[in-house]
Write a structure and sequence with these properties.
Elements lengths: L1 E8 H9 L3 E4 L9 H13 L6 E5 L6 E2 L15 E5 L1 H11 L7 E4 L5 E3 L2 H5 L3 E3 H5 L5 H9 L7 H12 L5 E8 L3 H11 L8 H12 L3 H14 L7 H11 L18 H26 L13 H10 L8 H16 L8 H10 L5 H8 L11 H4 L8 H11 L24 E2 L3 H5 L7 H4 L5 E2 L3 H8 L4 H4 L5 H6 L6 H4 L4 H22 L19 E10 L2 E10 L2 E7 L1 H11 L5 E5 L2 E8 L2 E6 L2 E5 L1 H13 L2 E2 L16 E4 L6 E2 L1
Parallel strand pairs: 2-5, 3-9, 12-19, 18-20
Antiparallel strand pairs: 1-9, 2-4, 3-5, 6-7, 6-8, 10-11, 12-13, 12-21, 13-14, 15-16, 16-17, 17-18
Helix pairs in contact: 1-3, 6-7, 8-9, 11-12, 11-13, 12-13, 14-16, 15-16, 18-25
């Protein structure tokens, strides 16, 4: 085995990609860079900054490949190709810029030397030059120079020429390359995973995918095709990672079932193939149940799709053509809703998945599954208090949609069925019953948290929100909605709660209506062995809580966290800029640090989400949930003069896990 070290310039590398002399092995993931990342790369080349090295592999036994996202097909090479292991995002981005790809229209401000993606504003501003117009083979730099001379620039003609020349030379910049020779595919996959981890903890799914690709060429393509099929039907969250986890759970290894994807790397090729067939069979049945029985049209509604895994494993075991007893189907769906309501998979999922998959082997699997979520004897009852303080990030968001769908709720604009998402989008489609603008301008000064409560959400289209609701209180538009539609959407009709001044009473009334609807929906699927008592559960005194508050001053915005745990209180300021930067970094799978209460706290990312220690809690949520929470906090920002002096301290003792969706709520 040998490692060849060499350098090649950008222009040569792009030519090799065009000729099919640099290709992507199957183990590579898809192209994901955004225009801002492309612009930063071009700027680095322009300024002479290091742009990283490339890792390639040369082999006499060509592996399975995947198409590069370059907007054109690669021809069969006339020489033995190199397979790109590290540097796909950078080389693909540069190829796109240098071949005028529609999604890589990077422009350069000759005056400020700034780079960004083309926009309507830059098209109108003569100071912005498209990078492609400078670096393309037939570029007329003299004509560009002449045009820029008349653009009213504040720099000299010599500076214009110098900057155009520097931009033109980005194609001459060298990349350092390391080329692996005589390495076996399985060893290359190990190297690929390590170099692409980027300093983050090695993801077991990365290793599993690389191993599967090495042992069964073409298998990853099957997973991607299966994922694409479900995406077209609205179930976009069923991605390759989800399928790999499902295969792992369907495997039996030494008599033990485990949710650890690392176990997949030790399984035989035959056992993996058998598990894959079970997963496909189970997935077909599960999606059919969700769509036809529960009326769940998209995974965008599900707070965690991990709750689908036990269902897939169980139903995948049933042979082709087997009939599933209706009472068993109902029990499985009841458990799915209970697990979702209890946020069973809101935190780390591996231990929960292992327990739930083991429960499938019990004599009464539904009873065993329900015992795992603490339901044994009585059924699950949703109360108004369960919905109070919740927003669209709550697991109960799904249930509010289902309650409307099962009541045959209609859109207020065209009278058609409600839709969970806008057309061609994964974003939930809903509006506020009481518009935010009318609530903010009310003398009661309702907070963003109150405005965004679940009880103020109605599932209607953007047209209905714009043309019927608008900026009016319900009292002003209620006559445009039929009584049957109000009933189907669980909208209280007492005139006093439809006025902005009665908003608090509206929330309480609608929470009662929604809680009854949701409990009624649950009861449709409740197993016979549950007694179904509907008495509300007692609510103990507050034992723990965490709230975030923003305060503005001429120096910026501070976010203060305040916590209570076991009768101890804590407070500390969070460095907002560091938190926002850390969330951006977490999107790439990298860990960061955030200053909280004067000390560095590690923001850690894994396959289940992002965790950040705040005082006595390890707060967990998805990146989108973190960003939504910060947005809500900023919308409620108060002047800093209203803030009491924060007595910061460090928390001593163990940290307790807290879900981000429970921030601002008081929990027993």
């Amino acid at each position: 085995m040998a490692v060849e070290r060499t350098n090649r310039d950008v222009q040569t590398l792009i030519a090799q990609i065009s000729a099919g002399e640099i290709m992507l092995p199957e183990i590579q993931r898809g192209y994901v860079w955004k225009a801002t990342q492309i612009a930063k790369l071009v700027e680095s080349l322009y300024r002479g900054y290091p742009a990283g090295s490339l890792l390639l592999w040369k082999t006499d036994e060509p592996p399975e490949t995947r198409a590069a996202a370059i907007g054109a097909s690669q021809p069969l090479p006339t020489v033995m190709p190199l397979y790109l292991l590290d540097g796909q995002q950078r080389l693909t981005s540069l190829y796109r810029v240098l071949t005028d790809h529609a999604d890589a229209q990077i422009v350069f401000n000759i005056e400020t030397e700034a780079f960004q993606n083309q926009s309507a504003a830059t098209r109108r501003n003569r100071k912005w030059v498209r990078v492609y117009d400078v670096v393309r083979p037939d570029a007329d730099t003299f004509a560009l120079y002449s045009e820029l001379q008349s653009a009213g620039l504040t720099i000299s003609d010599a500076e214009i020429r110098q900057r155009l020349k520097a931009l033109e030379r980005i194609t001459e910049r060298d990349f350092h390359m390391e080329v692996l020779h005589e390495f076996e595919y399985e060893e290359v996959t190990q190297i690929f995973v390590r170099v692409n981890s980027g300093g983050r903890a090695l993801k077991t799914t990365d290793l599993a995918m690389a191993t599967l690709s090495a042992r069964s060429p073409g298998f990853l393509r099957q997973l991607e095709e299966e994922s694409a099929r479900w995406a077209e039907l609205g179930y976009r969250a069923i991605d390759v990672n989800f399928l790999i986890k499902a295969i792992t759970l369907s495997l039996s290894i030494s008599g033990k079932r485990t949710s650890s994807v690392s176990r997949l790397t030790t399984a035989s090729r035959e056992s993996v193939a058998e598990a894959w067939e079970r997963v496909r069979r189970g997935l077909e049945r599960v999606v059919s149940l969700l769509k036809d029985r529960l009326l769940v049209p998209t995974t965008a509604l599900l707070p965690s799709i991990s709750a689908l895994h036990p269902l897939i494993v169980f139903l995948g075991r049933e042979p082709v053509g087997a009939r599933i007893a209706p009472e068993l189907e109902n029990g499985l769906l009841y458990w799915f809703m209970a697990a979702t309501a209890r946020n069973r998979y809101g935190g780390a999922t591996d231990s929960s998945l292992t327990r739930d998959v083991k429960a499938l082997d019990a004599d009464d699997p539904v009873r065993a599954l329900l015992a795992n979520v603490g339901i044994d004897g009585n059924g699950l009852v949703v109360t108004a208090r369960d919905l109070a303080g919740r927003n669209h990030s709550s697991p109960y968001f799904l249930f509010c949609y289902l309650a409307a769908a099962h009541a045959d709720a209609r859109d207020w604009w065209d009278g058609g069925p409600i839709s969970a998402t806008a057309e061609g989008s994964d974003k939930p489609q809903y509006s506020n019953v009481h518009p935010a603008q009318t609530l903010r301008s009310n003398q009661n000064k309702y907070s963003a948290a109150e405005i965004n409560e679940l009880a103020n959400i109605v599932f209607v289209s953007e047209r209905a929100a714009k043309n019927i609701i608008g900026k009016r209180s319900p009292a002003a538009y209620i006559q445009h909605v039929t009584p049957s539609d109000l009933t189907a959407h669980a909208i209280p009709t007492d005139p006093t709660v439809l006025e902005t001044s009665g908003y608090s009473q509206f929330l309480a009334a609608r929470q009662m209506l929604l809680a009854g609807r949701i409990t009624g929906l649950l009861n449709q699927f409740r197993p016979a062995f549950l007694t179904g008592h509907t008495d509300e559960r007692p609510h103990p005194e507050i034992l723990k809580s965490l709230t975030l508050a923003a305060y503005t001053s001429e120096h910026g915005t501070d976010v203060v966290a305040q916590a209570i745990l076991d009768n101890r209180s804590w407070a500390g300021k969070i460095n907002v800029a560091e938190l926002e930067a850390a969330l951006h970094t977490a999107a790439s799978g990298l860990d960061s640090d955030v200053t909280i209460a004067g000390e560095s706290s590690p923001l850690q990312t894994d396959e289940d989400g992002v965790t950040l220690p705040i005082g006595p809690f390890k707060v967990r949520g998805t990146i989108d949930q973190w960003r939504a929470s910060l947005k809500a906090v900023f919308e409620d920002a108060q002047p800093s003069v209203t803030r009491h002096e924060v007595q910061e301290s460090q928390w001593s003792g163990d940290l307790e896990e807290l879900l981000l969706t429970d921030i601002g709520r008081h929990n027993a």
